[in-house]
């Protein structure tokens, strides 16, 4: 399959009378977009705000970030299954508005939100457009179109959470369609033939596959939540997917997987891009396996065994990279998957963040000790904090904590709560070190 | 630096050449230049620095009047104008390790002068001072003197030059427990692919996170007579009375709650909920018995399968809780269970 991402490097985003792109400025007809999104009966209204790099602006309650993209040729719909029509993606041309991002801000009624949903406090995940948080997150550097949907009184919480995601996806497509007839600034090509041909002329190269854990069932996907081609894959048996499908909208980041992964990261998947980069030179990229972390037995053992077997006996991998969804329970799955792979002759490397929160004297960066799961790359410590300076503007629902700290003031926040600061898919260029 | 920097060396009575254990009450004193192992320091330093003086103190003297001894030692070394203080190495000697650590810390805190020492990993001085002072990892006895001196001098030079001290394994000191997120030029994805290629080619690689060492815990003796046993329910699923009046943590827990379930046949969603960020708590909020099965335990109590359900349920949250806190929480709960005559506990968690 050959996928061409036609990139337009957008330098600014503004509201205007007509949605169009001119001189690489994205102009948005706010009313038109709002009307489009407000068609969703689960929503009472949708606000749209813009946030630019360098502004003293803070976005609260971030629920997902999506790169504006739309298919301009090839077989698929955009985000097929998630938005109704089925299909597959990963081929042909897709227009990409680089330098911009759709940020979804969760405006549900706070009384329904559980601790597990909220995170540390009612501010939720945060994006700062300037200052130390902006430096560590890609979303502090993109022109952000912030979508703030509000639920109707009748909409249930789960219904709203899905409507939230759909609003973000629709916005991403709507914006990208403004670029569909423009000549791209650059094109990224992703071309990988089927398994029967991929190793041709690469017989001497090591075969490497990627095992992508999409989410963990300790936060079960909601009924109707669109994750893989619109399905909530709660009972997913590990399966093979073409890397281009991951890059082109087959997978939407699950609602509960916000800590450490956004749809934006999946669209620009760092491990997939890196394997492509070295394909044909140092390795042969043989494919991608997707899994869901299961928190019960025998589901976990079954998932681990099947994923390892797919890597070895179907993809013929000599080695795998394994990544995990956010949280602690998924660590066990990926550690066991690595162990199983090693046992059957497939070398395994894990990518994860450092969860140590106490004194660094305890080696508690990870919670497992398996001989086959020792090759680990770390993406930073999630609990180290940054001091975020006060801001002049807040997008989302302002919050004042019982301590008196308010969301527009100076905040001390762990990287875990800053959208984009930490990801477990390999993007980040920070590493946790002990002295 | 022309003449090189000035070093003051701290030694105990033995290495200072005053005597053995019988001289352990020797008062603090100062001698010009190097003494005993100070020669190895000077030889390693070469022209970079000079051991201008050596302060010697008996280990017992120091241990018995620590504050006084510390002040005296500071008074003795101040006029020597050291740029850095090197203490020991103390190897496995406990009192000596304590003195070295304390002297180094005092020199840093009170005089603003950098310091470095050396100890065997199991020296009790290590746990006391590793967070505050660079402690080079040494052998268990003075047979390891030569190997200890070089890293100690190396760190001393870097401290004087205000150069960055590298990682523990590189520089030879015991980890101080500081965790830092540092920028790195290659992304994690790039490093991971390189690591898997190295593994495939059977080449060495450097894991970036270390596995913990789990202790083997001997299980308790099984309960012989369940029908007369008192069983308690314990959870790390974050059970709290509704509204979380005790403000229990939802993650990085430091304590546990003792929840009264006396007389309750089941947990009601009106009175209890889960406060925990590590799993979807909505299902527990709908029916808390899904997390802490009081309802089932009462049935078993009525049937006579167990003797009694303990009237207190112990709860905490977990989620990135540090090992130290987890140990304290576990021990705290265990003590309470024992005091209450509980013979078995069922841990339900997420």
Q: Could you walk me through the main structural features you see in this protein, from its secondary elements to its overall organization?
A:
- The complex is a heterodimer of chains A (435) and B (350).
- With 435 residues, chain A is of the alpha/beta class.
- Chain A has one domain (2-417).
- Chain A contains ten helices and 22 strands.
- Chain A has helices at 30-37, 115-118, 132-136, 157-176, 195-198, 243-247, 263-267, 270-278, 299-314, 329-343; strands at 2-9, 12-15, 20-22, 25-28, 43-51, 57-66, 69-71, 92-98, 100-105, 125-128, 143-151, 186-191, 207-216, 239-241, 284-293, 319-323, 347-354, 376-381, 385-388, 393-395, 411-414, 430-434.
- In chain A, strands 5, 6, 9, 10, 11 and 20 form a six-stranded mixed sheet that branches.
- The longest helix of chain A has 20 residues, at 157-176.
- Chain B folds into two domains: 5-171, Rossmann fold, CATH 3.40.50; 226-348, no CATH class.
- The radius of gyration of chain B is 28 Å and the shape is elongated.
- Helix content of chain B is 33%, strand content 19%.
- The relative contact order of chain B is 0.09.
- By secondary structure, chain B is an alpha/beta fold.
- In chain B, helix 5 links the parallel strand 5 and strand 6 (134-138).
- Chains A and B meet through helix 2, helix 8, strand 16, strand 17 and strand 18 of A and strand 7, helix 8 and helix 11 of B.
């Amino acid at each position: 399959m050959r996928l061409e991402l036609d990139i337009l490097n957008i330098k600014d985003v503004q509201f205007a009378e007509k949605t169009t792109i001119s001189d690489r400025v994205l102009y948005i007809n706010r009313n038109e977009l709002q009307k489009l999104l407000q068609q969703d009966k689960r929503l009472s209204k949708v606000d749209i705000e813009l946030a630019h790099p360098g502004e003293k602006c803070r976005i609260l309650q971030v629920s997902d970030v999506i790169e504006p993209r739309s298919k301009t040729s090839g077989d698929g719909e955009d985000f097929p299954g998630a938005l109704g029509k089925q299909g597959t993606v990963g081929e042909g041309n897709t227009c990409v508005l680089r330098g911009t991002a759709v940020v979804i801000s969760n405006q549900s009624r706070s009384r329904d939100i559980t601790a597990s949903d909220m995170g540390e406090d009612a501010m939720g995940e945060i994006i700062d457009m300037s200052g130390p948080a902006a430096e560590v997150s890609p979303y502090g550097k993109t022109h952000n179109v912030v979508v703030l949907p509000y639920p109707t009184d009748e909409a249930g919480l789960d219904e709203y959470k899905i409507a939230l995601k759909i609003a973000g996806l629709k916005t991403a497509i709507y914006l990208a369609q403004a670029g569909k007839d423009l000549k791209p600034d650059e094109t990224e090509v992703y071309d990988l033939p089927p398994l029967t041909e991929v190793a041709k002329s690469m017989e001497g190269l090591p075969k490497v596959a990627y095992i992508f854990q999409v989410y963990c069932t300790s936060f079960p996907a909601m009924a109707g939540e669109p994750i893989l081609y619109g399905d909530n894959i709660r009972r997913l048996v590990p399966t093979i997917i073409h890397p281009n499908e991951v890059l082109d909208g087959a997978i939407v980041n699950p609602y509960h997987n916000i800590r450490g992964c956004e749809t934006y990261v999946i669209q620009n998947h760092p491990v997939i891009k890196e394997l492509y980069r070295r394909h044909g030179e140092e390795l042969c990229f043989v494919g991608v396996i997707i899994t869901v972390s299961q928190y019960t037995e025998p589901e976990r053992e079954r998932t681990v065994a099947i994923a390892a077997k797919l890597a070895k006996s179907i993809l013929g991998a000599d080695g795998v990279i394994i990544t995990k969804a956010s949280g602690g329970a998924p660590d066990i799955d990926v550690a066991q998957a690595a162990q199983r792979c090693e046992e059957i002759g497939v070398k395994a490397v894990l990518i994860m963040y450092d969860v140590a929160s106490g004194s660094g004297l305890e080696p508690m960066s990870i919670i497992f000790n398996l001989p086959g799961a020792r090759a680990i790359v770390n993406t930073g410590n999630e609990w180290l904090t940054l001091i975020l300076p006060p801001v002049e503007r807040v997008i989302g629902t302002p919050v004042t904590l019982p301590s008196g700290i308010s969301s527009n003031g100076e905040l001390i926040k762990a990287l875990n709560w800053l959208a984009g600061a930490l990801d477990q898919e390999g993007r980040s260029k920070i590493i946790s070190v002990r002295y | 630096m022309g003449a090189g920097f000035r070093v003051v060396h701290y030694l105990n009575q033995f290495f200072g050449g005053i005597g053995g254990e019988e001289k352990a009450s020797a008062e603090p004193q100062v001698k010009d230049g190097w003494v005993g192992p100070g020669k190895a320091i000077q030889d390693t330093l070469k022209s970079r620095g000079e051991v201008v003086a050596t302060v010697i103190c008996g280990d017992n003297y120091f241990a018995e009047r620590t504050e006084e001894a510390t002040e005296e030692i500071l008074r003795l070394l101040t006029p020597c104008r050291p740029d850095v203080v090197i203490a020991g190495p103390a190897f496995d000697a406990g009192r000596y390790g304590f003195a070295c650590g304390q002297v180094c810390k005092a020199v840093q805190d009170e005089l603003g002068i950098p310091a470095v020492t050396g100890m065997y990993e199991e020296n009790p001085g290590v746990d006391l001072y590793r967070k505050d002072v660079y402690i080079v990892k040494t052998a268990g006895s003075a047979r390891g003197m030569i190997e200890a001196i070089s890293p100690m001098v190396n760190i001393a030079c870097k401290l004087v030059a205000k150069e960055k001290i590298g990682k523990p394994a590189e520089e030879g000191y015991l980890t101080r427990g500081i965790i830092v997120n540092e920028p790195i030029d290659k992304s994690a994805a790039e490093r991971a692919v390189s690591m898997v290629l190295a593994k495939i080619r059977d080449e060495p690689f450097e894991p970036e996170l270390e596995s913990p060492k789990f202790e083997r815990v001997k299980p308790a003796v099984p309960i012989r007579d369940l029908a007369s046993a008192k069983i308690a329910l314990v959870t790390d699923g974050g059970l709290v009375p509704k509204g979380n009046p005790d403000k229990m943590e939802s993650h990085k827990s430091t304590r546990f709650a003792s929840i009264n379930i006396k007389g309750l046949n089941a947990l009601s969603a009106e009175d209890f909920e889960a406060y925990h960020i590590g799993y979807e708590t909505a299902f527990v909020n709908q029916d808390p018995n899904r997390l802490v099965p009081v309802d089932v335990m009462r049935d078993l109590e009525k049937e006579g399968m167990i003797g009694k359900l303990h009237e207190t349920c112990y709860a905490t949250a977990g989620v990135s809780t540090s090992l130290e806190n987890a140990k304290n929480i576990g021990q705290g709960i265990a003590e309470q269970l024992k005091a209450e005559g509980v013979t078995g506990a069922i841990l339900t968690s997420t």
